[in-house]
């Protein structure tokens, strides 16, 4: 009888475990950190607002630095970046070097692997020199990449995570997370209803979602859309992580 009871308990536990859905991981990929052009603050008010909101709500996220912004000495900006990184809730990542405009080709949409490697290496060098830490994740400014990017990424050992990378890179052997959807639809506009519709249809069952947004483009209406999306995701019992935290999680699963 004891054997039967133990067997039934084991079966019940197996069914319970199999039926439980793993918590979805959300990586907030927020783009285009640069120094404030005018004034006495390190970054724009909109960047300060999103930072303070995430911290107050204990939500992990990641901010993409345009590394050209590290060229010119700016003690206030550099100290803010250091303080935010040290706090551990927000992780900075590399969003390319040049803050391109719509009329320019993207840095990673043309050029050889060596030329693209040089851009990535320059960004890492600036981060080490000015901030004292490397940028372990990468996501291209303006999103476009080529096969040369894939090859270049493998040549920069500091970059261990590719945000919105190919599902199966040809050269890059570290973590690449493909694009499924973004926070915004269209670009720059967080729209809660559009987000919910797409999420339920295409993204709800994904293990991890990288969600791109551009806080410096959010007026009050767009901000309301962003916070509505965050509340919706929280209702789904997701887990917000930094890119490096997710990388550690994937590594822990490996034999």
TrEMBL record:
<feature type="signal peptide">
    <location>
        <begin position="1"/>
        <end position="22"/>
    </location>
</feature>
<keyword id="KW-0732">Signal</keyword>
<dbReference type="InterPro" id="IPR018763">
    <property type="entry name" value="DUF2334"/>
</dbReference>
<dbReference type="InterPro" id="IPR011330">
    <property type="entry name" value="Glyco_hydro/deAcase_b/a-brl"/>
</dbReference>
<dbReference type="Pfam" id="PF10096">
    <property type="entry name" value="DUF2334"/>
</dbReference>
<protein>
    <submittedName>
        <fullName>DUF2334 domain-containing protein</fullName>
    </submittedName>
</protein>
């Amino acid at each position: 009888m004891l054997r039967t009871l133990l067997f039934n308990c084991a079966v019940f536990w197996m069914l319970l475990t199999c039926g439980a859905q793993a918590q979805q991981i959300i990586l907030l990929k927020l783009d285009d950190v640069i120094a404030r052009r005018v004034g006495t603050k390190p970054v724009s008010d909109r960047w300060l607002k999103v930072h303070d909101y995430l911290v107050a709500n204990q939500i992990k996220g990641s901010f993409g630095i345009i590394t050209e912004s590290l060229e010119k000495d700016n003690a206030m900006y550099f100290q803010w970046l250091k303080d935010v990184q040290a706090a551990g809730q927000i992780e900075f990542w590399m969003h390319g070097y040049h803050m391109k405009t719509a009329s320019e080709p993207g840095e990673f949409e043309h050029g050889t692997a060596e030329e693209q490697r040089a851009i990535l290496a320059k960004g890492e060098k600036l981060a080490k020199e000015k901030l004292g830490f490397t940028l372990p994740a990468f996501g291209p400014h303006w999103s476009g990449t080529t096969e040369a990017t894939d090859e270049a990424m493998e040549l920069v050992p500091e970059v261990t995570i590719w945000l919105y990378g190919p599902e199966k890179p040809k050269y890059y052997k570290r973590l690449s997370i493909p694009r499924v959807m973004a926070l915004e639809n269209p670009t720059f506009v967080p729209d809660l209803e559009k987000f919910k519709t797409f999420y339920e249809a295409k993204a709800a069952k994904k293990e991890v979602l990288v969600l791109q947004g551009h806080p410096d483009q959010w007026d009050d209406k767009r901000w309301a859309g962003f916070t509505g999306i965050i509340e919706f995701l929280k209702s789904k019992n997701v887990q917000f992580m930094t890119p490096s935290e997710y990388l550690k999680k994937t590594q822990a699963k490996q034999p």
